[in-house]
Amino acid sequence: MNLKSEASRTYLSFLWWILEPVMTMSVFYVVFGVLLNRRTDDFIAFLLVGLVIWQWFSNTISHGMSAIQHNSRLILSVDIPKEIFPVIEILMDVVKFGLVLILLLGFLWLFGFPVNPQYLALPALLGIQFMLICAITLLIAATVPFFPDVKFLVTVLLQLTFFLSGIFYDPSSIPIEYQPYFFMNPMALLIESYRLVLLEAQSPDWARLAIVAGASFFGVLVSLGLLKKLHYAYPRVLQP
Amino acid sequence: MKSPGQRRKLISLDRAGLVYRRRTGFLRTSRFEALTDVSLELHEGESLGIVGRNGSGKSTLMKILAGILRPSRGCVVNHGCSVALLTLQLGFDPNLSGRQNILMSGMLLGFRLKYVKSFMDLIIEFSGLGSAIDNPLHTYSTGMKARLGFSVAFHLDPDVLLVDEVFGVGDANFKQKSQKVMEEKVKSDKTIVMVSHSLPLLQRLCDRILWIERGQTHRSGDPGEILPAYREHLQRSNGAA
Known about the structure:
B: 6-stranded mixed beta sheet; 3-stranded antiparallel beta sheet; 7 helices; 9 strands
C-alpha cells in the first residue's frame, strides 16, 4: 500500500533528488574549492564524502520528524499503524540517497579513487548508518506530536552536529586530547569510517562501529515500542 | 422489517468516556471531556442516526466506533467486524491523477489494491468526471474533488459504515444521486451509523436515533419519537439565546 503511494509520489520530484544534492555540493565546491582556494582533488573528494553521508542523516531526520504530525488528518480518519509515516519518509530518503551515492562513487572513480577491497565494508557501514537514522528519526517522530517544541531543538542540534562531525575539516586536526570525545559522536565516526574505506582503502574501527550498531538497534526497538504503546494517544493529541 | 434484538451484535459501547488534554498556553494544559458517558449497542443491518448540537461529542463517538480512538473510561467491544469511517478525500494527493487518487484513498480506507481496481470503472462513472479522471487532482474544481471523494468512499463496502455529515457535496444533481445511493445502502441491510444535522434525512434513513448532549446519551429510540423532541429542543434553546 505505501510502496504504491511511494512510487506514485516519487517520479514527480525525481529530477530534484539528484539536482538538489548536486547543487549543494556545488555551493561547497565554490566556497571551499574556489574562494578558500583549497582546490586539490583530495580535498574535494574528502568534502563530498562527508557531505553526502551527512545529508542522508540530516535530511531524513528533518523530513521524518514531523511525519506523524503532518498526517493528522489520516490518523484521525483511519486506524493506521503510526510508524508508517516516519518509515515512508525514511524509505524515500534511502532511495534519494542511493542515487546520490551512485553519483558519488562515480565521481570518486573519475578522480582517481578506484574501487578497492575495503569496499566490502561499505554495506556494513550503510547498514549501521541506516539503523542509526531509523532510531533517531522514529524517536523524534514519536515525540513531536506531544511536544512540537522539540522540532526547534532538533534543528539546532542538527546544526551543531554538522559542525562537530568533521565534514569540512579533518578530525586529525583537532587537539589529540579531544579526539576520543569527538568520536563519541556517531556521525563523526561514520564519516571518518566512510573516508577510510573510500579514499584511503583502510579498514574502519569496527569495535566502535559495533557499539553504534548495538545502540542504534536498541534505539529502533525502543522507538517502535513507544509508537505502539502510544498508538491511541496520537489521535487524541492531534485533534484539530 | 428489521428487528435489531435478534440480530448479531457488531459493536457495543459501555459507559464510554474520553478526555482530551489541550495546550492552552505556556506550559499549561487543560482537560476537556469530549465524551462522558455513552452506552450503545450496534446490531447487524441496523441504521443508527446520531444527533446532538455542535461540540456534543458526535465526532468523537464516531472515532471511537471506528477504532481510531480508545475511550479513556468505560469500554468498547468490536465483535469482529470491519468498520470504516467514511472520510471524503482521504489521503488525496494534489499531484496525482484522479485515477491514482482513487487507488490511494481506497487503500487507505483499508481495502486491497485488487478490490479497489475492480470498482474503478464504477467509481469513475458515478463521479461523472469522464476523461478528467487522468488529469492531476490540482486541476480539479472543489466540486469535482468532492464528487470524486464521495464516489470512492461510497463504492467500497465495510461491514459497518460510519458516515459523519458528508452529504451535500457537488451540485443539486449529484446531491440527489448520492442520497439515492445512501438510501439503497440502508435498504440493502447494510449496517450504518450516521451523523447529520439534516433531520428529514435521518427520519427517512434511520431506524434508531441516539441523541447525545454534552457527551452523554440524552435519549435514544425511534426516530418518530426522538427527532421531533430534538427539533423542539433546538428551537427552544435558539429562542433562549
